[in-house]
Amino acid sequence: MIFCAALSLAAVTSTIAAQAPQSRPMFDVTEATIPQMQAALTAGRVTSRELVLAYLARVAMYDHTLNAVIAISPTALAEADALDRERAAGHVRGPLHGIPVALKDNIHTTNVPTTGGALAFKGLVPPYEATLTKNLKDAGAIIIAKTVLTELANWVAGSPTPMPGNYSAVGGYGMNPYDPRPDPRPGFNDGRAVMGTGGSSSGIGTAASFWAANVGTETSGSVLSPSNQNMLAGIKPTVGRISRYGVIPITADQDTPGPMARTVEDAAIMLGALESPAPDPNDPATRVCKPPANRDYRPNLKRDALKGARIGIPRAFYYEAFTVPGTTTPRGGMSPAQTAAMTEAIAELKKAGAVIVDPANIPSVTTPDTLRNLLYWNTCSGVENRKGHNASCSIDFAYGMKRDFNNWLASLGAAAPFKTLTDLRWFNISNAGRGAIKYGQSLLDISDEIDLAADKAKYDADRAKDIDLGGAHGIDAVMQSEHLDALLFPGANGAAISAKPGYPTVIVPWARVPNSFGPAFPAGFDPQPVPFGVSFAGSACSEPRLIELAYSFEQATKKRVAPVLK
Length: 566
Description:
By secondary structure, the protein is an alpha/beta fold. Helices cover 33% and strands 12% of the residues. The strands form three sheets. It has an eleven-stranded mixed β-sheet, sandwiched between helices. The longest helix is centred in the last third of the chain and has 26 residues, at 456-481. The protein is globular and about 70 Å long.
């Protein structure tokens, strides 16, 4: 973690004590929501400077265990002071004015390096800010830190040695605050967390109240998965609703930033600030969805939104193991504990007045035509899908990474440490002894062997199939045939199908289930239960309705429990 010299625990706490008026108690940021902080700022019970200092104190106390932070902003206090002066002068920019938030370290900032977690980019200061960074700052948010992540958004190492979630050469291993111990089991005892953190974004610091909320990026699950694993509310938006300009890419076909927070309301506030008021000329996809009035999703926070809402249950594969007709191997399903949790969630939806359509199976999952069945169409990844062995999987990620990563490098101009993906691979090989590729780089390898001209026909066909199986023949088909408001997925299980056509999902904290992943734990080691959420998914640009449903469910249940930090 990169720390400013003045930010030791003793310095932070003494500064807070010296500056807080003795006539009022210190504001407790633990689990505080954005509206609660905004109300305290308005009432003069706290200043933005004190919020920053209070969060930094928590970082100083607990981050040695969690490793949520890859860098602290050296300008956070100065930004807080400026925003406090604006407030004193009667100017408040909106609900994020003076609120500290964090960004995944693949999002450009010009006051803190943007590394993507890669040793090759350690110390890289981009020549321009991400559009979303500017939008947050214009909204009055204070970007207090950059978070750990899975290196380059988890497009470095697949099989045979896949990179663990929230590991990077620069940041090391992030740990889950609900069980921040390293995994003791042989084959997993390399330093990784015993409880998965999700990936590639990190929800660790938001769950631990190191800041009010954070921004992750998702290509296929990397907002929803860490939200699920850290008991957070997360919004994976429609691709293009938030500009990707200034975000290190995997593929523009599926990449999107998205907010992660402790409540749906906080996530909705963040989404409005992240969205641009008009299409970004640097990202053509931002023409896809129209922003809500004043870029404000708070009117969608309706407690009674579930009343009469039609919610579909995609039983086949997502809830219960499913055998495609004509085959013998069952796929998917849930553990008994997850099944019990989702049964209870569905009961709560009924209690809130929702109409449950069960089953609402997805045609691209249940079709007997294996050539049009989603379960037989995966993303090419790892050595087994190298060139010449990728006919039955989509090269979208591999192709997109070479195309879009090289374009991103070009956008850095003179600041770019090298020019191509090939250069990055050679840097990693040359610096393997320094830990550049602890888990190899099989994903970078299969991307770099792509010929952008010769392989374009396969890419175009694969991309069209991805969109068809996820969208027209997938989510859209069942949504339309059953007249649904949303599909309800267990945890982050629906992330991959929604990601293919670029569709949105909102996840809500719900339960905790036994940590039963992988081999048995050693005698005497008691793994803690893992957070488990529920996801509301829909078709393109349906975020307003999904936020309504997720908020209504959250308010009816309120199942989030804060981690106990030591």
